[in-house]
Write a structure and sequence with these properties.
The complex is a heterodimer of chains A (107) and B (117). Chain A has strands at residues 4-7, 10-11, 19-25, 33-38, 45-49, 53-54, 62-67, 70-75, 84-90, 99-100, 104-106. With 107 residues, chain A is mostly beta strands. In chain A, strands 2, 4, 5, 6, 9, 10 and 11 form a seven-stranded mixed β-sheet that branches. Chain A has a four-stranded antiparallel β-sheet with strand order 1-3-8-7, with no helix packed on it. Chain A starts with a strand and ends with a strand. In chain B, β7 (69-74) and β8 form a beta hairpin. Classes of the chains: A mainly beta (107), B mainly beta (117).
Chain lengths: 107, 117
């Protein structure tokens, strides 16, 4: 099973700061990575798919990158509405398997 | 606008079977390239993929749940369903139905399922 490890678990930042979240796979997943934003009481929302494609409804300050085993989600200038938990997900073997990282809380 | 809506019991007894249904509106489940699936989150835990189904009925499951899970689809009603047997407290979670093409681009609002003994 592909294991996704996110770091750090919690990131304490201020509005306006640049934030970079990391996600590492224990084996190559090529570019089959998505990122989600999760706020309390809400369903997760897809932020990024295919490593670097920004999902509908998310502004350009959200950027995804990486390849193989190391991936990042960068928020160029954190806005108040961006405070949330972010999850990475790999889908290299989709539809047979999907796995999520443990999440990074941006507070 | 595509909408997904979960329905089913919020409280289920341990050892029994959970059945949830997802109704899709604003679109059809009978589309190529997309799967329909279930994802859950237990209290204080991360996200867990349960399984996915194609409009043809082909289904894939998380290996850790495979022995207890069945996901089916009814294209005539634009619905798909989750059946999870032999429930334990560890199955207490918010369950979401989703549309998947690798990543999940549409989510239902989620339904909290509590398992009691």
């Amino acid at each position: 099973e592909v294991v996704m490890t996110q770091s750090p678990a919690t990131l304490s930042v201020s509005p306006g700061e640049r934030v970079t979240l990391s996600c590492r796979a224990n084996e190559s997943v090529v570019n089959n990575v998505a990122w989600y934003q999760k706020k309390p009481g809400q369903a997760p929302r897809q932020v990024i798919y295919a490593t670097s494609m920004t999902a509908t409804g998310f502004p350009a300050r959200f950027r995804g990158g990486g390849f193989g085993t190391d991936f990042t989600l960068t928020i160029s200038s954190l806005q108040p509405e961006d405070f949330a938990v972010y999850y990475c997900q790999q889908y290299r073997d989709w539809p047979r398997a999907l796995t999520f990282g443990g999440g990074t809380k941006v507070e | 606008q595509l909408r997904l809506q979960e329905s089913g019991p919020g409280l289920v007894k341990a050892s029994e079977t959970l059945s949830l249904t997802c109704t899709v509106s604003g679109g059809s489940v009978s589309i190529e390239d997309y799967y329909w699936g279930w994802i859950r989150q237990s209290p204080g835990r991360g996200l867990e993929w349960i399984g996915s189904v194609y409009y043809t009925g082909a289904a894939y499951y998380n290996s850790s749940l495979e022995s207890r899970v069945t996901i089916s689809i009814d294209t005539s009603k634009d619905q798909f369903s989750l059946r999870l047997t032999s429930l334990t407290a560890a199955d207490t979670a918010v369950y979401w139905c989703v549309r998947l093409r690798g990543g999940a681009d549409y989510w239902g609002q989620g339904t909290l399922v509590s398992v009691y003994s």
